[in-house]
Write the structure tokens for this entry.
Amino acid sequence: MHEGTISARLARFITASVRASGTPMWRFERFPDLAPEVLDDDLARISTPSALALWEQLTLTEPGSAIGALITEGTPLGTFGVWDYLISTGDDLAGSLKVAIDHLACIGDAGAEKLRVIEDGRTFTVRHATGSWVPDVVEAIDLFALAMIATRASAATQRPVVPLQVTLTHRPPRTYRRLAAFFGTRNIVFDAPHNSITFADNDVRARLPKATPGLQQILTEHAVLTLSASKPVLQWHDRFRATLGAALREDAASLDRVAQRLAMSPRTLQRRLAEHGTSWREELEQTRHQQAMELLRRTDLPLHSIATRVGYSDARALRRAVRRWEGRSPNLVRRDPVRVGGPAEA
């Protein structure tokens, strides 16, 4: 299933969206599974924490979390590989969407993302839910998922398919009008129990223009073979560090929370770390060091903001940590960013 990872195609698309926003890409230079040669390999699987770092950056750009939907506008079928074609080659949209949802792992993290179809003979609804990450990131991913269903529905049928209703568990964003224009309806319900998109049954039962007998079965077999041949770029220890780094950025870097994200008990996590010759305390210290140095050298954020971002109570605690790591004050680190580590010279 490759839980904890997404496809290189999806990661490549999100990376391109971040770059198109004008965001400096230096923050992602240290992510080994976001290197260009990795993203260009369609058999590579990118860690979900690395993808979340990209999503987090996207939500900081205009127009905020609504960008999760808006970045899908105009993306042609094929952008997301075989998953796109599963939606467009079945007999009708209803059946094709079900097949694509069953093979969600071809594009996304099937362990973190849940898609469910609900039918009542009059309407066809797809519900979506994702992990418990930073609220803005969750909202962006929810909107992205619903937007993918909407854009792929129109592309597969080769005509505009306007949803009867879109529901979101989130509060109304400032960009409501743009979302209404994107989905083609003002019937968007916020603070709802579920994230969902609902179509008229007639819209999803019409025969698809590209329906070809037997083709979807061939593509399904190809999807299974491709997924079985793909491999995560990061080994377990690297994935743990990526998860810890993401949790620290989200102010959720406790042993219990990180263990939960890795789908294991805290005791098992500690045992796995011991097998790698390290410990939770050592890993947390190393990750705080890395992120604090990066923020000091690359940004103009005040010390109290950096302290909060790396899990310290105040700027004084950060100053003590920087002296322990670098043998000098944060201000000296900023004045002389080239020098790395080591005690101060006498």
Summary: Confidence is low (pLDDT under 50) at residues 339-346. The longest helix spans residues 135-157. The first strand starts at residue 5 and ends at 7. The chain has 17 helices and eight strands.
